[in-house]
What does this fold into?
Amino acid sequence: MITIRKAEFITSAVNSKGYPELTGPEIALAGRSNVGKSSLINKFINRKNLARTGNTPGKTQMINFYRINEEWGFVDLPGYGYAKVSKELKANWGKMMEEYFSWRENLRAVIQVVDIRHIPSLEDEEMHGFLRNRGLPVLVVATKADKISKGQWAKHLSQIAKALNIPDWHMIIPYSAETGIGVPELHQALEEILAMTEEDVEIGEQETDV
It folds into this structure.
């Protein structure tokens, strides 16, 4: 497992002019506004309040950059799919993410966060397809696994896999920021991703495009 020695918030940005310099690989997190990305970050690095959490979905309106062990970065992308924000704001979020995915050369993979209790939304499906089309490795993490019984996980994960065209539901990590379910599995998955070289990523992109 990854040992978290140091974790710090670096900066927030709305476009590439505000991005921190390219130093080491980055893992981005994408998901709906109320899916628990900040809680996932805090539990993963075992810090209570590094990433801000709130009861109001849609509050994360910038790209937030975190530095782990002074070696690699977590990038919390603006949430999508929250109905109460304006169309203009939704469009701005889309532009922010498009620019990040287009220009961030050290991006290694994207963790797409979904809610295990619900079938993925149209926005979830579109995001997953967008990332696949760009040739980016995508790891799906299903949060709030503590909210349903373990015996129901297979049913819910199978529904998520079907909606996102994932061949095997075992590829999805059930996760809980409350109980720590899935934390070791996520550590292992990210350790493997971070060990990938730029050449490995390029090969993966070519295979995806075929």
